Amino acid sequence: MTDYLQDYGLQKLPEFGGPSVTVEILRLDQIHPIVSGNKWFKLRYYLAEALQQGKTRIATFGGAYSNHIVAAAFAAQKSGLKSLGIIRGEAPDKPGKSLSDALSYGMELAFTSRDEFGQKQCLIERFTDADTYWIMEGGYGKPGARGASEILDFAGSGRFSHIICATGTGTMMAGLIKGAKQGQKVMGISVLKNHFSLESEVRALLEEPENHQDFAFIHGYHFGGYAKHPPELIRFMREVWHKWQVPTDIVYTSKLLFAVKKLTEASYFPPGSKLLLIHSGGLQGNRSLPSGTFDF
Ligand SMILES: *Cc1c(COP(=O)(O)O)cnc(C)c1O
Asked: How many angstroms does the Cα of residue 38 sit away from the middle of ligand 1?
């Protein structure tokens, strides 16, 4: 691990899965407050490739609240690279917390209309130069999945029957499928509403034998869509903190835990299952809520 990253580990969640299913969570949120969770894993091979190709700048895409944008800005700065963030939507009067963070890590920002943002190839042509290395929105792509496959490189990961994560682009999930042992089932809880192209997007990142791993997608737990956080979700997040001392974020990890809780209550997992949940970070996203919403 790189020097600015902290150690992270597994935490048991007693009784989270009821009497017959054990649940543990991999606390990637502890790696770093900014490049927390999966983003460091997803970015590392893009940055390595950029340096290898002699590029001096990375460029990527994201929304104004994107964890990926902030992590890319920070990781680029740490790697001695400049960075450009192409942001969906018009420039705000005052940048929010995520964009302020990205700016503080030296990222240059370019705002585009939603229509333009959909035309990635045009944007690449407009903003590129010979020194720029491009990373797709959300870090989607094979180098991202390759980095994420290393999330499971720890002793004892083979004893779990199920590995479960939240999915945005599905890049982390593709990595987990690559890193899983035979017989382990990988499950993705989608945080986007009706993101039914997810399966083909994940499959596109896999190589031939990995396509036959056991994996599944769960679509019913987005709570109305990306970053939507009705009171029921906030109550659940407080309960998870009080009972298990796990801080969760409103976009990804709260929905992961909620889904797993509901699935275990519905006896979805066979008795004796050993679940590994991936806490992929994202806690800084909670700063958009009124202060004092949570005790963590
Ligand atoms: C970006 C992110 C994800 C989603 O990762 P994908 O590889 O895009 O599916 C999940 N959790 C957190 C906290 C994230 O920031």
From this structure: 6
